[in-house]
Write a structure and sequence with these properties.
Layout (H helix, E strand, L loop, with lengths): L1 H4 L2 H25 L7 H22 L9 H17 L5 H24 L8 H9 L4 H30 L5 H30 L18 H21 L7 H25 L3 H7 L19
Length: about 300
């Protein structure tokens, strides 16, 4: 078992098996929940929660909460495809754009997770920090903080896609804008991740701060891409409904997740581990790419 846990290829197959089981349990739960709520939206929420519980359970079994990490990107395209089949919507150009935008984003993010996954001996440092800080409530913080909260936040984003399917609009400029934002967001994430990977390879022995490419204009361009992705989905919804209503809370909530939780947590670690990060932080925008605030005679990376 120990060899299985520390073998990258074997652990990837094990993760795949977990997710196949989670999806299967989700499908069964979806149909069983019809007796409680005869509505595809809320049935899917119940199924999504059931799938999350399966992955959470495996995380406990293998003592690694990072088993949840691919859930963020794997489930949304499956949810969208399921709703398309359940609602029996007519395929239109506007829908093809939504499908393409979400699937490109999901494929890129899942691929990025896969190439960075080591094995079950490695867990995201943030999860380890949460466990060490409050070991007595790890059971709950793991369930609600690491697993359930992201599931619910992403599901809230997908409600806009569900409403889009209900309306099934023709193409318009707002939908076109939503498509450009989703594709642009995926491109930004891909470029940012590639630049970071190359920087780490060239500076593996030194604790430097990347200040090149997209990272010269945003301290977290990968996070900016993630936030932009869900604003793009909202524009699809806005293009379909033609109104600003409660659904705008979805991308705002996603923005707050990164601005007030993910980024502060990441930067606290970077400040403690990289001496030049404070100078970098003073010069570069937190999230939205912007011009460098001030130039210094010597870059933090030199």
């Amino acid at each position: 078992m120990n060899k299985l846990m520390t073998n990258r290829t074997a652990s990837l197959y094990l993760i795949l098996a977990m997710y196949v089981l989670a999806v299967a349990i989700g499908i069964i739960t979806y149909f069983l929940s019809a007796d409680l709520v005869d509505n595809p939206l809320w049935q899917m929420l119940i199924a999504d929660v059931a799938g999350t519980l399966v992955i959470w359970g495996f995380g406990l079994l293998f003592k690694n909460a990072s088993t949840y990490d691919p859930y963020w990107s794997v489930i949304p395209p499956l949810v969208l495809a399921s709703w398309i089949l359940i609602l029996k919507v007519n395929i239109r150009f506007s829908l093809l754009l939504l499908i393409f935008g979400i699937f490109v984003w999901a494929t890129r993010l899942t691929y990025n997770w896969a190439i960075n996954w080591r094995d079950f001996s490695h867990q995201d440092w943030r999860y380890t920090m949460i466990r060490e800080k409050n070991p007595k409530i790890w059971f709950l913080s793991n369930l609600f903080g690491i697993n359930m909260m992201p599931t619910l936040i992403v599901f809230i984003q997908m409600i806009g896609a569900y409403r889009f399917l209900e309306i099934m609009p023709d193409f318009n400029l707002w939908i076109g804008l939503g498509f450009l934002i989703t594709i642009g967001a995926a491109a930004i994430q891909f470029i940012a991740d590639k630049q970071m990977m190359n920087f780490r390879l060239m500076n593996s022995a030194e604790k430097k701060c990347i200040n090149r490419g997209l990272w010269k204009y945003s301290r977290h361009p990968n996070y900016f891409g993630e936030v932009a992705m869900w604003w793009g989905v909202w524009f699809f919804y806005f293009g379909a409904s033609g109104k600003i209503d409660l659904q705008i809370v979805a991308p705002i909530l996603m923005s707050c997740l990164f601005l007030f939780i993910s980024i502060p947590m990441m930067e606290k670690k970077l400040i403690a581990s990289r001496p030049t990060y404070l100078d970098y932080k003073k010069q570069v925008s937190m999230l939205v790419p912007f011009f460098v605030r001030q130039e210094k005679s010597e870059s933090p990376n030199k």
